[in-house]
Amino acid sequence: MSYLSFNNDGIFLHDAADKPQKLISLYNPADNRSDLSQNDLINTVQNNLQKLFNGTLEGGINAIMFLRIAARLMRKPQVHNVLHIGSWSPLDEVLAKVLPQFNPKSLLWNYAPSRPVEKFANVNFIFADVAWGGGYVISPNKFDTIIFSEPRLPDAEILLAPKDWGRIYFAAPKSALPDYLAESAQTFDLDENFSVIELEISPTLRKEIFSHTPQGELDDKKGKIRQTFLKIREVSKKFNELPPPEKNSVLDEYIAELTAAEKILNEIFPALHSDTVKLNFSMFKEFLIDVRLYKDWRLKNRALEDLNRQIKILAQDLNNL
Amino acid sequence: MRDGKRGAYLMSHTGAGFNNQQLMKDVGIMAYMLHKNHGFHSVVVNKKSDAQYPYLEKYLRGLEMDFLPENNLQEQAEYINSHKDEMDLLIIYGAYPQYIPLVNAYKQICPEGKIYLWADMNIGWGSRLPHTDPTYKKFLESCDVIGAGCRSVQKYIATKWRVPVGLVRNGWYNFPGVSFENLFECKENIILTVGRIGSDQKRNEDMLAAFAKVANDLPDWKLKLVGTIEEKFKPYIRDFFTAHPELRGRVTFTGLIEDKTELANEYQRAKIFCLTSTFEGGTPNVTAEALFAGDYIVFSDFDAADEATDGGKCGRVFPVGNVEELAKIFLEVCRDEKLLLEGGRHAVEWARREFDAEHIIARQVYLLYGGDAQ
């Protein structure tokens, strides 16, 4: 049986020949641009939609995987509006053309992670074509269903992301799940080779997941982090309450205290699982360096404002740990 | 070390090289600043070609250049081996998988050396990189500091690649030594763009179309496009002036301006700087140049656009390809002198804070070496 497979390199035809034949190139690394005509891509997928429905269109990555799961789910009439979260790719053109064939009312949006999600109304189905940290989706309780394109477990903090999620799908066999999740998971098979995990995230499951995360396992380190951070907040509070002339005279001391705390946090942070916290910590370090480096007092004061704001953000992150 | 100085070596991936223009951008500036301000001896290891490098003599005194005939892996490994006592820092530009053999060679030969990766990219390009591939992941983890060109890319790298990443925007340094005295008194009613005119990426046709729409309503305004014109765009320009003969003299194409003083003067004369790009890699170099010159920014919504305007305080962002919206923006801002002046002043302040090349590089040095290297 011949079939098509699809990955970031292109679309391949598998038939009786030993080596898959590349039909269309998707990505030309020499100039970082796709040399695939979008029409070609759309036509190829559309021409093989029947194979898609029948489950004979292979491919475990990104759009094809999503389309295959969606083919199952979107036969349910209530599934309508899809938000594709991920950087722009020719696949968006494909999705825009193909999705209405599943459900005429379906609409597709795409956004890049730099834009807020809230502006997309009535989205109840997310195709998450990204490896997520905790921060991208702001109002997840609007969303009913989310499919992860990458065939690996999503991060624990995604499962623990703010508010309650609905159902999550990802392409992996149930055996890939740890026992405590496998008990709660359902699976369905797209075909004999391809199964999908369906996980309904409840508050109880969230607690269970947390206790198994590296964060959950780092209680003693959390204690040390909190302690260090309380110290930062105490020092920042004292510093910020001083009137300007006095602030200048203790600035070096303030920076020294923050630097000492930064050193401790540097040791502990790599062990933490949250990318958002690590990113916010990177920004904290950046602003602290700026305060040290700027000679111009206007710039130094601006950097101090950024730093003090970042300390509050980091404190909030740590409270959420 | 050489003569007590740390050595910073900028190397391209195998087979590639740097041209004269690139020396005055991002990593070329980094290598130069490491020499000028931080006591490094800095070397650009380049592929041998017939290209000339006049900027080395004119603006980048002290920056050295070594040439490898093919710049292939064997030559690179031999070069590293013969300079291993001097190479303290390897600078690589772009998160290309093609760098993996070079980085592996460097790590083997100079295990104590540090690696700086300037990941100047946009999210679209970055999303195609094989970040889950173990070999590629190891490559990223080998880098001591990774710099992203704007906040959105920094966040993307932190979450997608899961490696520590700093912010390193493409900054500006006053190489030509131009004066900024009376900056706003010298400005003229000019909308400026600088870049490869007519490339698919830049979408200059949008800018021309938008200007043509409002030109009658803005009789005092001109549009100036600076940069080499792509051959395929020349017919478009001819057709444009056939359709809008009244705009000859108001829409001008200067070609490439290589002299930095002359280029800086163009930025200073303009009131508005515009880009209509589909995408950009990180923060385009022109952003810093325009901000320091007090230009009000009008950008299409590529990754770093919003940051360039400091969230709208010194510019506006419009959806890529939306000529109507761009025309509306031109009409609105060109008629608002107060906005242009206040926005321009904020642009300068914003530039001094966030786009000062010396400060940006100093921050990277801090991340690499702590306070000792200042």
Describe the structure.
The complex is a heterodimer of chains A (321) and B (374). Chain A is of the alpha/beta class. Chain A has eleven helices and ten strands. In chain A, the strands form two sheets. A seven-stranded mixed β-sheet of chain A has the order 5-4-6-7-8-10-9, with helices on one face. Chain A has a three-stranded antiparallel β-sheet with strand order 1-2-3, with no helix packed on it. In chain A, helix 3 packs parallel to helix 4 (90-102) and helix 10 (275-293) packs antiparallel against helix 11 (297-319). Chain A is elongated, with a radius of gyration of 24 Å. Residues 1-8, 24-38, 49-62, 74-80, 112-121, 130-143, 149-153 and 160-164 of chain A have low confidence and may be disordered. By secondary structure, chain B is of the alpha/beta class. Helices cover 40% and strands 17% of the residues of chain B. In chain B, helix 8 (151-160) links the parallel strand 6 and strand 7. In chain B, helix 2 crosses helix 16 (357-369) and helix 4 (73-82) packs parallel to helix 5 (100-109). The longest helix of chain B has 18 residues, at 337-354. Classes of the chains: A alpha/beta (321), B alpha/beta (374). Chain A binds chain B through residues 8, 27, 29, 32, 86-89, 112-114, 129-133, 135-136, 150, 152, 275-276, 278-279, 282-283, 285-286, 289-290, 292-294, 296, 299, 302-303, and chain B through 96-98, 123-128, 130-132, 151-152, 154-156, 158-160, 162, 164-167, 303, 306, 352-353, 359, 362-363, 366-367, 371, 374.
Q: Please give the most extensive interface between any two protein chains, plus how many residues each contributes.
A: A-B, 37 and 36 residues
What pattern of helices and strands is seen along the backbone of chain A? EEEHHHEHEEEHEHEEHHHHH
Give the helix/strand class of chain B.
Answer: alpha/beta
Shape of chain B: elongated
Distance between the termini of chain B: 17 Å
Largest beta sheet: strand ordering of chain B: 3-2-1-4-5-6-7
